[in-house]
Amino acid sequence: MSYKIEDANGKLGVLLPGLGAVATTFIAGCLAMRKGLAEPIGSLTQTGTIRLGKRTDKRSPKIRDFVSLASLDDLVFGGWDIFPENTYEAAMKAGVLDKETLEPIKEEMEAIKPWPAVFDQNYVKRLHGEHVKKGANWMELAEQLMEDIQNFQKEHGLSRMVMVWCGSTEIFLEKTEAHKSLAAFEKAMKDNDPSIAPSMIYAYAAIKLGIPYANGAPNLSADCPALDELAMETRTPVAGKDFKTGQTLMKTILAPGFKSRLLGVNGWFSTNILGNRDGEVLDDPDSFKTKEESKLSVLGSIFQPHLYPELYGELYHKVRINYYPPRGDNKESWDNIDIVGWLGYPMSIKINFLCRDSILAAPIVLDLALFLDLAKRSEMRGIQEWLSFYFKSPMCAPDLYPEHDLFIQLMKLKNTLRHLKGEELITHLGLEYYD
Ligand SMILES: NC(=O)c1ccc[n+]([C@@H]2O[C@H](COP(=O)([O-])OP(=O)(O)OC[C@H]3O[C@@H](n4cnc5c(N)ncnc54)[C@H](O)[C@@H]3O)[C@@H](O)[C@H]2O)c1
Hints:
By secondary structure, this protein is an alpha/beta fold. The chain has 16 helices and eleven strands. The structure holds nicotinamide-adenine-dinucleotide (NAD). Nicotinamide-adenine-dinucleotide binds at residues 17-23, 80-83, 94, 117-119, 124, 127, 129, 166-169, 198, 216-217, 242-243, 245-246, 276-278, 281, 357-358, 360-361.
């Protein structure tokens, strides 16, 4: 069976709350690629292929030729920030891309100016911005966001939109009664309940309008039963949380390898230096706690210590992020991994990753925007677990544990695309080649 998927005709609006390092690097990349000035390296939707049928069939089209995806030429960018700078100025300030890269797209980037944000400093303690909306309560602010979105759609004649949260990491919040049902959530919005954070207001506004929503940061945002209920009602796909880049990407590449070969791991110490605004925000212990929870969850679920107590029962896992301004966006991370082999003999592995955070995150924003739009056109709704591939803390149904293994995540993503198009799923059994 194949799904009825509407073609990706017309323009796709990409709404970005938070026009900082990641968002501006993403926009700049798309604009440069449109002009043929760069290749979409790191993007599965642009560069990846998908095998169909048997290995002997030799059918491996590009993903973008297999499923109908919006083209880069049809993307229109809009967003909000607590600072009024246009995206060219914001990109220059973020310092990820050099002047030479930005020069040919300067005019287009200057034309993208943030709308005033929904913001409250109690949720991101290290930031103070004046470019913010005023309203009597969260509900009124959500209505103002919806107005921005509708004006943007009219102004650019957009046929569809998606939203990807690229705003700062908010403080750690637990789910409360206010998050349990849509009715309670809407009441809490009207009462200005402190358990509702600004990122939830953006998620609410998008989902209420049926606009797919992805969360690139670890804060709860759309990850609660109330917004899941709204997503089911408005038939809206949702994905999150926390873009999988840098050190955690390395973890989800290596850890499945150790586990496959049944090598024990009793220590994994990870430290980072990071000097961009994200690093400054994460220097606040409450925002760091949100990030720490997200980063720590990965190994436990890959190693499954309850199934392999002798290999992973004693694992000591520590993650540190240190704000170090001289490095800007060029994060450096060090990992020391203590592993155990045959007869309990210890070994250790050191990783020193000199990475560029936003360079790794930008193609994820692009893929999420295009795949969420595909999901919407395919009438998928609620949590899109097949997009776990992109996240450190993948959202999944409440009675499931999340899948963190990058390779299982990729298989799941590609099988979902095959399933949507009525192609045979690939199990890698392969016995038929030897019959
Ligand atoms: N760069 C990566 O590799 C990576 C990986 C995983 C997650 N993330 C997350 O992605 C997010 C963006 O990262 P970044 O490096 O671009 O950070 P950044 O600090 O450069 O950009 C975030 C922007 O969001 C704005 N902002 C904060 N609260 C807002 C609100 N309520 N409404 C609108 N704008 C708001 C800030 O003013 C800032 O300009 C962060 O939460 C970060 O933790 C980044």
